[in-house]
Input
Amino acid sequence: MKTNYLKDFLNDTGEVARFSVRFFKEAFKPRFETTEFLKQCFFIGYKSLPLVTTTAFIMGLVITMQSRPTLVEFGAEAWLPQMISLSLVREIAPVITALICAGKIGSGIGAELGSMKVTEQIDAMEVSGTNPFKFLVVTRILATTLLVPILAIIAGAVSLYGGYLGANIHGVVSWDLFWNQIFESLYYGDVVPSIIKTFFFGFTIGAIGCYMGFSSNKGTEGVGRSANSAVVISSLIVFIMDLIAVQIADVLKLT
Amino acid sequence: MIEAMEQKIAHVVQESLPVIQIRHLYKSFGANQVLKNFSLDLIKGETMVVLGKSGSGKSVLIKCIIGLLKPDSGTISVFGKNIPDLDHDELDRVRAKVGFLFQSNALYDSMTVRENLEFPLRRHWIDLSKDEVFSLVSEALTNVGLADTLDMMPAELSGGMRKRIALARTLILKPEIILYDEPTTGLDPITGQEISSLMMELQKKYHTSSIIISHDMKCVKMVANRIAMLIDGTRYACDTYKALEASDDDRIKQFFK
Output
């Protein structure tokens, strides 16, 4: 049994790698599915915006409120903006955005492509003179790769605003002082790596969602399983990539 | 006089040339050998029914013809071109002339009826103007008697209506060959019969050749010029409905009971 799990795992890993290589091969060859790409950007970006910003706002507010008492105890309340800016911009905003997108977008892509697969819609597309990989997969992966970073940047800004409100619930920090302290404490080495990693998160969410949908079988049960695996696997990979990104930033002395 | 005769002979020869020629086709999935040395000819203008039990490889056969599955060995010549040898662009050019009606209709859930019908048009015939696309879509919908469903979503339609729309989408490119995968399965007998008559009517109107996979004997009797029996992965028999119905062979008789 154990060897089977290992075999399945290695098999799936190989397939995902092959799927990703195919994406790079097909993404830069014409014909480009611009209309479908823009449609996906709308669905993936615009429709996820309310959820991402709400969560980011709450995270910013809550983290600030919970960090405050400890800093007050050490008489370091003035460091509150610096502290939250680093944790929110470097870690919370990118990872929370990626996890929400894995849940909302990854499962959506997995279920949509999965049901298209089992109802022969992908085959129908192929006989209609369309490369389904280009039309369905390339557009979605490109959209997630480009839109997740934008969502993460917006999430970062909104979470800092949440932090500002959080800091003012029990204390008083002026608008100008708060933002001055934030921008003084943030360096390019904090912001750039955190944006770069969101491109990888976006790619992972799109690629895993599409792979799960495209390889789904066994009818409606398979569709459910695809949606579920898309979320679980992409969330896990997001955490692992985050771990690796932090190590790389550390080695490059960016922290 | 002689010229006219020559022309007539050329016409007759062309009419009787097979548009699809399958030779020694083998296809397996793992250890399961689905098609074993299957051969078949489809003559221009003919309606051929492929009859066989569920799981006998009928769908695999037509998916090999359209290039959705690659056979292990053998040749499938469609309009003189061997499908397994074609690259993607060449395959698309052949597919523009071959329609495929899916068993599950395969209508795109996220698109309206109009967008479903426009999809193959815009893909295969890129140069069409908006007006031309609209008139072709309207013509296709009128052909299947559903002109008023233009802006409806597939989920709002009944099973029979969905089948008609799928048929309209298949016919919109005016294909010379149509492959039907169990066109009446899952429909009530009356709707099934309606779809069968519609298929025959459109067949006559556009002079298409077709391969129909079915085990609905009412439909088979109505539409078939010839029937190929697919048993044990091979072509067990191939003849007219009447001849097969009169056969003494037990394996053939069980279908005509």
